[in-house]
Amino acid sequence: MTDIFEITMDKMVFGGDCMGRLPDGRAVFVPFVLPGELVRIEIVDEKKRYARGWLVEIIQPSPDRIPPRCMHFGDCGGCQYQNLTYTKQLTLKESILRDQLVRIGKIENPPIQPIVPSPNPWNYRNTVQFHLGPKSELGYIHADGEHLMPVHECHLPEEPINTLWPQIDLGEDCDINRLGIRYDSYGSLMLVLEGEGAEAPEFSVDLPISAVYTPPDANLTVLAGDDHLTYTLFDRDFQVSSRSFFQVNIPIAEKMVTHLGENLRLEKDSRVIELYAGAGLFSAFVAPHVGHLTAVESSGSACHDFTINLDDFDNVVLYEAEAEAVMPSLNMNMDVLIADPPRSGLAPDVHDAIGKMLPEQIAYISCDPATLARDVRKIIHKGYRLVSVTPFDQFPHTAHIETVVIMSRIQE
Predict the structure, then answer these.
(1) How far apart, in Å, are the Cα atoms of 269 and each of 257, 358, 361?
(2) Domain boundaries, the chain
(3) Mean of pLDDT values over 75-102
(4) Strands of 33-152, DSSP E
(5) CATH hierarchy code of domain 91-119+245-409
(6) Which of 16, 110, 228, 327 can bridge 399 by disulfide, Cβ–Cβ 3.0-4.6 Å?
(7) Torsion on CA atoms 276, 277, 282, 288, rounded to nearest 10
(8) Contact (Cβ atoms closer than 8 angstroms) between residue 298 and residue 321
(9) 202-221 pLDDT per residue, tens
C-alpha cells in the first residue's frame, strides 16, 4: 500500500526540491512544491534517514505560487522553478548558495554579491539536447529520472531552435539515441546526432543547416554543412566544434567575462593559468592583458578550437591533458589561477598543486554550489580569504546556480 501524508513544506534545498518533515521526523524531499504549502504527497523512495515524495495535491498553496508557462512543468525534469516569479527565483538561488557555503564550506557570513539576472529569462539557451523514445520521438527525462517524456513545447531554447525541432522526423527505425541542436551568433543551426554504432545512419535534410553524427570513441561524420559553429562575445568570434562545450547563455557569459576583468589584477607582466579552459572563452579576454597565459584542457575537440580561437596570441601555451596530470609538474610561479571545473569540482592533486603554487588570486567558476563550498573551504585552509561570491543566473527556471568566486592569498 502506498504511503500518503499531508505535511507542510519547510524550505527549498539545492537541486530544486522542497524539504518537509514526515510524522516520524524524517526529512522528505518533494519537487515542484513551495515552502509553507500544505500538500498531500506520496512516498516514492524511502531511506533510513530521509524519504522522497511526489506531489498528489496542493491543499493550501503558497502566496508566491504562480501558474507555470510550460504545459510540461511538474513532470519534466528540465525546470524546477516555473511556479515562482523570476524575482523570487533569484532570491531563492542566493539563499541556497549561502546555505551551501555556510553548511558545507563552514564559512561564516560569506560575501555573497547580488545575483546577476539573465537579460533573457526565457528562450536563452543556444543549445538543447533531446533523448529519443522507442519510435524516435523527441523527449526529455521525466522528473522522476527514470523514463523519457515526449515533449511538445519548451520555453528555454532560442526561437530558431524551437522552430526547427518540431519539424524533425528521424523515422521509427532510427539508431540515434540523442539529438542535440545548436544555434550560433550568425544564425546557423546544427544537428548533433548521437548513437552507439560506429557507422553514420542514413540521413537527409532539406533545410540549410549543418548536421554531424558523433559515435562514442570514434571520429564524427559530417552529414551536412560544417562541423562547427561560431559564437560572438564582445565582437570576438569563437569557433566551437560539435563536440566542444560552450556557454549556453551568451549574454550571461559576457557578464561573467566582464566580472573577471574587473576583479582580477591582470598586468602586463602577470602570469596566469586557466584550468578547464574549454574552447578559450575566458583565455581570449585575459591573454591581451597579461605577460603569459598557460591553459589546460583535456578535450581534444576543445583544444582544437582553442588553438584557432587564440591563434593571434604569442603569449599563450596550451596543454592537452587533465588538470590533475599537468598541475603537479608545472614548476612555475603564477599570479592568477582561473578554474572552471566540471560539476565534480577540483581533483585532490589540483588542490595539492595550488598549495604549492600559491597564486596571488584565484577565480573559481562553479556550476555546483556543493562542490564549490567543499573546494573553497580547502583553498581557504591554504592561506586564502574569500573576497567575493557572485552568482550569475545562467539557467533561469532551473535549479542550476553558476557562481564566480574571487579569492586572494593572505600576505604574511
Answers:
(1) 20, 17, 15
(2) 4-65, 91-119+245-409, 127-231
(3) 96
(4) 38-46, 50-60, 127-132, 138-141, 148-150
(5) 3.40.50.150
(6) 16
(7) 130
(8) yes
(9) 777 778 899 999 988 778 88
Q: How far is CA 67 from the centre of its chain?
A: 26
Q: What is the DSSP letter of 145?
A: S
pLDDT digits 0-9 by tens, 215-273:
887 788 899 999 999 999 999 999 999 999 999 999 999 999 999 999 999 999 999 99
Q: Which DSSP state fits 114?
A: P
Q: Which residue has the cell 504527497?
A: 41
Q: How far apart are CA 288 and CA 284, in angstroms?
A: 7
Residue with cell 538561488: 93
The answer to whether 41 and 55 are in contact (CB under 8 A) is: yes
Q: Is it true that 4-65 and 127-231 share their CATH fold?
A: yes
CATH: 3.40.50.720, 3.40.50.970, 2.40.50.140, 2.40.110.10. Which one for 4-65? 2.40.50.140
Class of the 127-231 domain?
mainly beta
Tell me the Ramachandran region of residue 56: left when phi exceeds 0, alpha when psi lies from -120 to 50, beta otherwise.
Answer: alpha
Q: Which of 129, 163, 168 is nearest to 148 (CA)?
A: 129
* pTM, 2 dp: 0.94
Which DSSP string corresponds to 63-81? TT----SSTTTTTBSS-S-
